[in-house]
Write a structure and sequence with these properties.
Radius of gyration: 32 Å
Strand order of the largest sheet: 6-15-12-13
Helix content: 40-55%
Distance between the termini: 57 Å
Number of strands: 16
Shape: flat
Structural class: alpha+beta
């Protein structure tokens, strides 16, 4: 970088105060050390430390290069992953301070030369944004999506026009209804047969709220969009009206967001009910059989209760074998040429899947390779909810190995005992370990499990029955899950487009206030659903003792 003239003392103080708010004292010390800057200030306040370091540095070197180098390292975009709005806010303030020096800090984390501002008014004009009109308001990203080009040109008249049109388009995208204005709103937000509902519409208050929201949407189109489409721009009041109109449109977008969140929660509750119903069907079939009139006897096992009188109840080790998985070192992990090691992340909803695959290059005995029809069980994890989940090995995964936090179960009838594992058996067993700090099922725990042992012909009949009965529930669960995925995909598509660069709204976003409210905070059901895909405890990042 060319030599940068020293900054004036007022700029130094402003920079120090800004950077003092952007990180901890530890962060400041680390970056100062990395950039070779010595802090002899004796100050404890963050901004005062930086103020004296910057002044001393400029006096010794006769330029501001080291100060700018510190800023680039301290405000690197990598530190603000997931906090892009914070980064943009700091960048705007920084550029306002450096405008007099002819420097601008870009969104890419690099400084570039610009024409220096000659006066305070000119500097303020350069960083002038509509943000000042939005103090205390929240701006929705969908607004930026539809009017970014207009905002970059300070064309607030057409920015509002495009944002209003974008609101209608979002409703069309969510419902598939190809209408506009009042016709669109009446069709989508009908009280009798709504495609979108603001609430459950169970009470008069809820119906009134829903009607009011519908009227507000129609009013936005009638009072904002339509006049803008017809009246001359010269008659419009500009920024003041833009602030109010874009805030109104943001409010309406957030109402739609809440409707999506409410719909997702409803679908999550439905999935939970379907899962419970499925488990109840399985539990009754594997503990009572298919004959409702069969004579019962006490099993002597809490989780089983009464079982058909002609059934036996035996420990799992009597009808199968349990083998713990492969231990390996991080140095054993290889690329695609190695042997796949199945872990908890590869077990999802009763099936083996490709997810977060790990492969190793080392000798693996045949006893630690899976065969089609084997039952793979997660026996240890950092998350208690993952312990006990299981899957049947399919032909695709035959020959793979399995990790040390997994166990392989081979029984005289894997299809039947796979269903047994999906009854109330393991939840009941795991409840006995609630006070334990380690979430695991040992080999001895599995081998000692008491399980029903019906005659061969009944096991086959029960398995066939459950294959049919659970298909309907699985289909409903899959459909509800797909709906949730589509809604989440729709809701996050804008963010993904911005992150990947398909939609560049950085300059437009700089003209808007920060959106401080996340679109959604994951509720417990979502966290559990995501955990289903996460191997929370395989510990592959920790060296394991290689198997002898």
């Amino acid at each position: 970088m060319a030599t940068i003239p020293p900054l004036v003392e007022g700029q130094i103080e402003a920079l120090a105060r800004l950077l003092g708010e952007c990180g901890s004292g530890t962060d400041i010390s680390r970056v100062l050390h990395d950039r070779g800057l010595v802090d002899n200030s004796g100050e404890s306040t963050k901004w005062r430390r930086l103020y004296w370091v910057f002044l001393d540095c400029q006096n010794r070197h006769g330029c501001a290069n080291h100060v700018i180098d510190f800023i680039r390292a301290f405000l690197t975009p990598a530190r603000f992953v997931g906090r892009s709005q914070d980064f943009e806010a700091h960048r705007r303030e920084l550029n306002a301070i450096l405008a007099f020096s002819g420097l601008e800090y870009g969104a890419d984390g690099h400084f570039r030369k610009v024409d220096a501002a000659a006066t305070l008014d000119e500097a303020e004009r350069r960083v002038r944004t509509i943000r000042s009109k939005f103090q205390g308001r929240r701006m929705h990203p969908e607004v930026v999506k539809y009017c970014s080009a207009e905002l970059m040109q300070d064309n607030y008249f057409h920015a509002v026009f495009e944002a209003a049109k974008g609101l209608a388009q979002r409703i069309r995208d969510m419902t598939g209804v190809q209408a506009d204005g009042a016709h669109l709103i009446d069709r989508v937000f009908s009280i009798d047969r709504p495609l979108l509902a603001l609430n459950t519409l169970q009470t008069e208050t809820e119906k009134s709220e829903h009607k009011g929201f519908s009227a507000l949407l129609k009013g936005c189109f009638a009072a904002v969009r339509n006049p803008l489409a017809h009246e001359p721009r010269i008659l419009w009041d500009g920024e003041d009206d833009a602030a109010d109109y874009l805030s109104l449109i943001s409010l309406l977008h957030r109402k739609l967001d809440r409707r999506i969140r409410r719909y997702i929660r409803a679908k999550q509750k439905l999935i939970k009910l379907l899962e419970e119903q499925k488990q109840a069907i399985i539990h009754r079939a594997v503990t009572r059989g298919l004959d409702p009139n069969v004579r019962l006897k006490p099993s002597g096992v809490e989780w089983l209760g009464d079982v058909p009188a002609h059934w036996d109840v035996v420990p799992l080790k009597r009808i199968g074998t349990v083998r713990i998985g492969l231990t390996y070192l991080p140095s054993d992990v290889s690329g695609e040429s190695g042997t796949l090691v199945l872990r908890a992340s590869n077990v999802s909803k009763g099936k083996v899947v490709h997810a977060d695959n790990v492969r190793v290059s080392r000798n693996i005995p045949a006893t630690l390779r899976v065969r089609e029809g084997d039952i793979l069980v997660c026996v240890r994890s950092g998350s208690r909810s993952l312990v006990g989940k299981s899957a049947l090995i399919t032909k695709e995964f035959e020959g793979a190995s399995y990790g040390a936090f997994m166990s392989l179960l081979r029984t005289i009838d894997n299809r039947f005992y796979f269903r047994v594992l999906h009854s109330n058996l393991l939840p009941t067993v795991m409840a006995q370990f609630e006070t334990s700090t380690i979430n695991q099922l040992t080999q001895n725990d599995l081998r000692s499990l008491m399980v029903p042992f019906p005659p061969d012909i009944e096991r086959a009949a029960i398995t066939d029955f459950l294959d049919g009965e659970t298909t309907t529930a699985d289909g409903a669960i899959a459909a509800a899950t797909a709906e949730i995925d589509l809604l989440r995909e729709y809701r996050t598509r804008l963010i993904a487009d911005v992150v990947t660069g398909k939609l560049d709204v950085r300059e437009a976003a700089a003209r808007l206030p920060q959106e401080t409210e996340d679109l959604e905070t994951l509720d417990e059901a979502e966290v559990e659903g995501d955990a289903e895909q996460t191997d929370a405890g395989d510990g592959d990042g920790v060296p394991e003792e290689a198997e002898a």
